[in-house]
Structures are given as structure tokens and as C-alpha cells.
Amino acid sequence: MVVRMRHTKSHTKNRRSHHGLKSDTLFVCDNCKAPKKGHTVCASCGVYRGKKILDLVKKAEKKQKKQKAKKAETK
To answer: What is the SS3 assignment for 47?
Structure first.
């Protein structure tokens, strides 16, 4: 098939003008003042809308325990 009308570069770019990527909007955590994404649990303190959701200390301890077990297994 032969294209009847050729699209110029400017018309193509005008059509694709809304295809650009948007950056994530960051908000400040009310609890620890760290930057975080909206509608998500804060990664540094584990609080969402004033409630403690994640116990990050417990999570870190579990990760260390797992690493020690893996290290002992490889020796």
C-alpha cells in the first residue's frame, strides 16, 4: 500500500507531544520529614496516614538473621 499523504516531522511531533514521561511527585512524610511517594507507606519510618504499618526494626533484624544463616551455610 502506498501512503497518499506524507506526515511531516512537525505534525508527527505534535501528535506525540503527550507521550512524554512525567516525573513522580514527592511529598514530605508527616512523621519523619523524609521524601516519599503519595499514597504509599514511608520507606524510612513505616508510617501511613498517622498509623504505624511496617515494623522496620523487625524487618531489618529478620534480614540480618537470614544473611547470617546464608553465610554460615556457605562456609
So the answer is: strand
DSSP-based three-state secondary structure for 57: helix
Q: Domain extents for the chain?
A: 22-74
Are the beta carbons of 37 and 22 closer than 8 angstroms? no
The identity of residue 60, as a single letter, is A
Q: What is the DSSP-derived secondary structure letter of residue 17?
A: G
Q: pLDDT digits over 6-57, tens only?
A: 889 999 999 998 889 988 899 999 999 999 999 999 999 999 999 999 888 8
Residue 33: per-residue pLDDT: 94
- Give the distance from CA 73 to its chain's centroid: 33
Q: What's the length of the chain?
A: 75
